[in-house]
């Protein structure tokens, strides 16, 4: 596959974020879905692990990467894991990419649990790239009633303030403040965190 085609497989925003990242950096793709990003990251040379709670997503992602790795590696590096099983991963990563939070959470409590779990999977000094469905803004009157519930048919939707680092019970700091972005015609909240060890933290 040509390099330009590999790049096209990543969202523009994720590609720009990773443009200067050394390919020796380890990646964990949480909520791998169709495997599009997992496959593209492998083709770009990153060591990648991926997981998703949905059996069909795991099988689709394994099929997507089998041109790049053998069957045994595809099975070991793409795993079915629920939110509750994430902390059992016995390693940490330079980057954790969570670009489809709706694959794992459907309540504010679960979103908080996801962020705590991800924090434990990021190496000190490592990064978390996160995208979540955006709650309707003031101009989205047609979905205002659903916003009051904090979710719709696609799962929990969030405001930028919900993902501000100072509100989280972690050692994350924001490298990029949460902001509303358009991703393939869908309104999402994007943020980039870095794990920083504070004095006295464990």
**Count of helix runs:** 7
Order of helices and strands: HHEHEHHEEHEHEEEE
CATH topology: Rossmann fold
| Distance N to C terminus | 44 Å
CATH superfamily descriptor: Vaccinia Virus protein VP39
Q: How many distinct domains?
A: 1
Helix content: 25-40%
Look at the structure and give the CATH class: Alpha Beta
Number of strands: 9
CATH architecture: 3-Layer(aba) Sandwich
- Biggest sheet, in brief? 7 strands, mixed
Strand order of the largest sheet: 3-2-1-4-5-9-8
Shape: globular
- Mean of residue pLDDT values: 84
Q: Helix/strand/pairing class, anyone?
A: alpha/beta
Give the arrangement of secondary structure elements.
Layout lengths: L2 H7 L2 H7 L8 E4 L5 H8 L4 E5 L2 H11 L5 H7 E3 L12 E6 L9 H14 E12 L10 H6 L1 E2 L2 E2 L15 E12 L2 E10 L7
Parallel strand pairs: 1-2, 1-4, 2-3, 4-5
Antiparallel strand pairs: 5-9, 6-7, 8-9
Give a description of the structure:
This protein is an alpha/beta fold and 202 residues long. The chain has a single domain (3-12, 22-195), classed as Rossmann fold (3-Layer(aba) Sandwich). 30% of the residues lie in helices and 28% in strands. It has 7 helices and 9 strands. It has helices at 3-9, 12-18, 36-43, 55-65, 71-77, 108-121, 144-149, and strands spanning 27-30, 48-52, 78-80, 93-98, 122-133, 151-152, 155-156, 172-183, 186-195. The chain has a 7-stranded mixed β-sheet. The chain has a two-stranded antiparallel sheet with strand order 6-7. Strand 4, helix 6 (108-121) and strand 5 form a beta-alpha-beta unit. The radius of gyration is 17 Å and the shape is globular. The model is unreliable at 1-8 and 138-153 (pLDDT under 50).
